[in-house]
Structures are given as structure tokens and as C-alpha cells.
């Protein structure tokens, strides 16, 4: 469900609205956001069955038509398994995808992605050996691409996939924080950027 008035982050072309409210949130200048998720919050539909878990706070807005890139430098207080800071695409409760800076069961920060079309999948990317990571979502025609990097230079392709929603739904994009097994997670999104074009090449680091 949506709650609260729309928020404006100057780096983005559209207002944002909370779906599930966080413990706290704060805009930081024109291109920054801090979010605290409460404990027991997640966004996942187990492919083995069961009811969807859609309790994670997410701040979403409608991008303009056409290709684009949404990116941010993401940091998080990763204390408990599956704590995460996330960029995401959302159509409805059964059609969405997320790109996560997440604490693995081994206690290691990782880039993780989930694509949900009725049921979620769960795919590990790479181990993050710094205390933050850059994440990027791109719309490329009828497809989507997830990229990440830690070196400030070369984007690594994490997922390239097709995702659409039911008729009369349009894509929303934005930010999410979660702490499925822990008491909560603090997440920062900095250097938020929106570019109204697709990357030049999905696999050459650009």
C-alpha cells in the first residue's frame, strides 16, 4: 500500500511515494537519502511456495518513457543475514525485481539480485570488499539491466532480463531497505543519478 505525500529528490525526474513506511527516512541534499527499515522486513516470494513477504519499505516513482539509468552509491549497516540496501523495479506485488547490497549467510557483503514474475528467484553476484557499492538499474527497450561496481570505474553486468507487469500496470523504480532476520537496517543512498538513456554497451563496463 502507498502512504504519505510524494517526496522530491532533485536528482530524479519524478516524485516518490512510500509503499510500506520505514522507521525513519531523511533526504540528504539533492542526491541523497537515508532510510531505516524495521526488523522482520523483506521483499521475497519463495519459489518453493508460501505467501509473499512484501513488508520492506520502498520509495518508488514513475520514470519518464524511454530508456534510462538510475544509479546510487549504497551503504548499509549490514549486521544480520539478508540485511540489504536495494534499488528496484516494481510493477505490482507479483512482478518486480531488486538489486541488493546484502549480507550473505556467510557474513560477507555481496551484490545479490532477485527477479520476481509470480515467484522470486535469487542470484548471487559478487562479494563486496568495501563498505559501499554502486548499483545501477537500466531500462533498455523492453528489457532491464542490473549493474554494480566498487572501483568507481567499470560497471559489471549482474542481470539482463525481461520483466513486464499485468495489463494497465507501468514500471516504478526507486529504493528499498530490509532486515528480514535482524532488528533493523540503516541504509544510505548517495550520489543518486538519473540519465535518460541506456548504457552504450551492457558488457564493456560503461
TrEMBL record:
<protein>
    <submittedName>
        <fullName>DUF1349 domain-containing protein</fullName>
    </submittedName>
</protein>
<dbReference type="InterPro" id="IPR013320">
    <property type="entry name" value="ConA-like_dom_sf"/>
</dbReference>
<dbReference type="InterPro" id="IPR009784">
    <property type="entry name" value="DUF1349"/>
</dbReference>
<dbReference type="Pfam" id="PF07081">
    <property type="entry name" value="DUF1349"/>
</dbReference>
